Amino acid sequence: MITKRIIPCLDVRDGRVVKGVNFENLSDVSSPVELGSFYSESGADELVFYDITASSEGRRLFSDVLKMVAQRIFIPLTVGGAINSVDDFDRVLKCGADKVSVNSGAIADRSLIYEAAKRYGSQCVVLSADVKRVDGRFIVFAKGGRVNTGLDALEWIKKGVVDGAGEIVLNSIDTDGVKRGFDLEMLGAVCEVVKVPVIASGGAGCAEDFIDLFRTVPGVDAGLAASIFHFGQLSIGELKRQLLKAGIAVRV
Amino acid sequence: MTVIVDYGVGNLFSLRSSLRFIGEEAAVSREPEELRAADRIILPGVGAFEDAARKLRELELDKIIIELSGEGRPLLGICLGMQLLFERSFEFGVWEGLGLLPGEVRPIEPVIPPDFKVPHIGWNALRFSEAGRESGLLKYTKEGEYVYFVHSYAAMGCEESLLADTEYGGFLTAAVGRENVFGTQFHPEKSGEAGLRILKGFCEL
């Protein structure tokens, strides 16, 4: 039986993981390689690295880091952040990424998903959308959630899948950072309109939130979270034990 | 030395890294002489069957792979590389494969329930056939271990070479092998520690 995936997400700036992480047994908590290995050994099913660097020097460091990660960690690696062109896909795929996540880049260049999927295959193209409720509608926001694009989220995501996106990461701005659970209503709506895997992001505060997620919206394939894992509130091993106990299939 | 066939298809960085990680010397090449000098050969691949089969032929690598596997050289096809080992594929047309294993590649959609997603993406468990229990490829693998899949097509009609399958509403071919020719639908180089042990099994053949 296919298992539900648990995916930690690491923000990287100038080659270092941002957000303080305090784990014992980790000599360098901001090393993407060390932290990535730690998560992989704890049972993470995939890793997502977001490059939040602004400079080209930082971009080069990110590429170096990615190569080091891909030489040591043998689970699927997704890379996002600053993906605006097919050349950006090329750059991170050559460094060992398996999937590339596009967000604002796909809004600025409406042919990006199609062109990337044609060249690298749909399995490689992840559409990540930051979505917020505006007057009762789900609307796509760009630039890290700062810019209202006016795009209807369900239409945008449907179009992305038609163009060739092989997976969707749905990040609810309404629940992100609140730690009161995933946005089950928004996720349910997205699962209704697409048949590709949907990854839930935004709102995880405890193991019960993941149990609720997979029970209430069975169409969701994976849960993504950052701070809940980074700050050691919940280990991936413990989360998976609780999911198994709740009857949800996970890889252990 | 294991040589990974480079025919312009897929991400070979992780595959080479995973072999080096388990202490196996690994090279990526499309040079006939390097392939002939290899102890064993890996045929990788992602993307479309037709495109991959055409590239193999254009580089005349199909002939070398058939020649070396005929001489008994261990060969492992991964994902699309496994599908290429079969007689033909029905992915957007009908395309000839290498014909090293009996069977054909067909879409999974008709053989799984309608509410199951296509592609089959994620970690799924291995169920061994009788031959799988005896196979050197899986000698470090336990039944029920999880490996990482990404595919919309699967090998069918290949019972005689089946080593393992996986349950996704129906049973899908996961690993095949006959004599020196092996294939995995899943990505051992992306299947964590379980995947590295499968590569280790292959490298000891």
Question: Would you write up a description of this structure?
Answer:
The complex is a heterodimer of chains A (about 250) and B (about 200). By secondary structure, chain A is an alpha/beta fold. Chain A contains ten helices and eleven strands. Chain A has helices at about 30-40, 55-70, 85-95, 105-110, 110-120, 155-165, 185-195, 205-215, 225-230, 235-245; strands at about 5-15, 15, 45-50, 75-80, 100, 125-135, 135-140, 145-150, 165-170, 200, 220-225. In chain A, β3, α2 (about 55-70) and β4 (about 75-80) form a beta-alpha-beta unit. Chain A is globular, with a radius of gyration of 17 Å. The mean pLDDT of chain A is about 90. Chain B has about 200 residues and is of the alpha/beta class. Chain B has one domain: Class I glutamine amidotransferase (GATase) domain (Rossmann fold), CATH 3.40.50.880. Chain B is about 30% helix and about 30% strand. Chain B contains seven helices and 14 strands. Chain B has helices spanning about 10-20, 30-35, 50-60, 60-70, 80-85, 130-135, 190-205; strands at about 1-5, 25-30, 40-45, 75-80, 90, 95, 105, 120-125, 125-130, 145-150, 155, 160-165, 170-180, 180-185. In chain B, the strands form three sheets. In chain B, strands 2-1-3-4-14-13-12-9 form an eight-stranded mixed beta sheet, sandwiched between helices. In chain B, a hairpin with a 3-residue loop joins β12 and β13 (about 170-180). The termini of chain B are close together.
Write the layout of secondary structure elements.
The complex is a heterodimer of chains A (252) and B (205).
Chain A: E1 5-13, E2 16-17, H1 32-42, E3 47-51, H2 56-72, E4 77-80, H3 86-94, E5 99-102, H4 104-108, H5 112-120, E6 125-134, E7 137-142, E8 147-152, H6 153-163, E9 167-172, H7 184-193, E10 198-201, H8 207-216, E11 220-225, H9 227-230, H10 236-245
Chain B: E1 2-5, H1 12-21, E2 26-29, H2 32-37, E3 40-43, H3 49-58, H4 61-70, E4 75-78, H5 80-83, E5 88-89, E6 95-96, E7 104-107, E8 120-125, E9 127-128, H6 130-134, E10 146-151, E11 153-156, E12 162-167, E13 171-178, E14 181-184, H7 192-203
Parallel strand pairs in B: 1-2, 1-3, 3-4, 4-14, 5-7
Antiparallel strand pairs in B: 5-6, 7-11, 8-10, 9-12, 12-13, 13-14
